[in-house]
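tool_log.txt
---
The assistant was asked to compare two proteins side by side. It first ran the structure predictor on the initial sequence, then on the second. Raw inputs and outputs are pasted verbatim so the downstream comparison step can read them without reformatting.
(1)
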Amino acid sequence: MATIVRITDLKLDALRELRVESLQEGFSFIERLCAEWISGANRFDAPGEALFLAVSEGQVVGVCGLNCDPYAHDPRIGRVRRLYVSRTHRRRGIGQRLLAAVVAGARGHFSSVRVRTEVAGDFYTAQGFRRIATGAEVTHVLELGGLRRQLGANPKPKKRVHR
């Protein structure tokens, strides 16, 4: 069983096998994650952001991140980034658990999270995301509810009717 861990310091060697495998499948986003980490362009360290790894028997078998959505121009909107699970570990719920960790991390900071995917749309809709067609930078959104409610604030009290 894989363990989901939130990290703040990415060891690029740990992603070596995922990088090779994802490129063989025609996906370059793990390479982009590594390049952005090296350059400092994206370290998943802004307020509300996080990076998660799935680790099984000491090996990284999955990755998923959360950023403030750079396309939304609204600090209350998060973006799921770089979700990838090794071929040999798929269909075991690891992707769902990585995404659940991202969504849990987003609650209390973001009012919604968005993603753009060309191949995993059914996966996201199965996780509660709604498919949208509003632009080239987003295909699915998950509304997290009002931030007041997420932060534990009580809703407005109901007016009492005295008889």
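(2)
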Amino acid sequence: MGAIEFQVWGCRGGRNMHGTRTGDLTSCYAVHAGADLYVLDAGRGLGALAEAVVRGDVAGVARVHVLVTHAHVDHWEGLRDAAWMWTPGNGLALGIHGPAEALAAIRAGYAPPSFVPLDVLAQGTLASLAWTELVAGATLELPGARVSAVALHHYSGLASSRRPLETLGYHLVLAGGPRLAYLCDHEPTDATRATEDALCGASELALVDANYGEKTEHAFGHGSLAYAAEVATRHPHAWVLATHHGPLRSDDAIDDGLRRHGAGRPNLAIARQGLRARWNAAGWSTV
């Protein structure tokens, strides 16, 4: 297998920010391996990623596989702005995969009169557009990779109006390459620890929800930097990136949290927009 690169294109949750060191765009992470681009969530960061693909900065891509975790808009709002939806005859094959609730929200969000359906935008631009519904426990075979879906603990509302969301985490295994765990929009509990450990224990890179700073703040289906540090302690072989930073989390608060919780945990880092890493036999290294 040729070079495999990972990049953070968006790492904020909830809404887009302006002028932060950590990053301004909502969730989007990508692994590039030859002709295949595996994308985790489609927030505003997808717009920047798609521009890079169309320009050729991310070169040689023929197939794009987008894995959406759930229905909240900050995880799919970048789909309509992706340059490949607006560039005639670009030849890309795009697959959008996720839970039924998320795919329904995407279709409804882009339906008239709000906007234009993605299937219409794809006409004359993409080579193909495919939709795949996933459920917890499902395995998706993609060119050069296998994806396993697991149920995450995520919800909207307060206790009196709490609404569980159909939310999936993903384990992405590249053939002959690295394994990646994606646990975004997930509030850890004692009951979910076995799931977290199974995914992170079988991965060289783990993206872990860090919407808040401390475990005492866990709420609305989100975790914390403090808990991401615990994951790093339990799985010292994995490079743990704390991500999905809440829109009220300042750069200084995030950096201070890493100083406090990252002590003695060299495998814990902050996911920052623009962060790039390359995989080889020795593991991941930033570039």
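---
observation on (2): The chain has a mean pLDDT of 97. The domain at 4-276 is CATH 3.60.15.10 (Metallo-beta-lactamase; Chain A).
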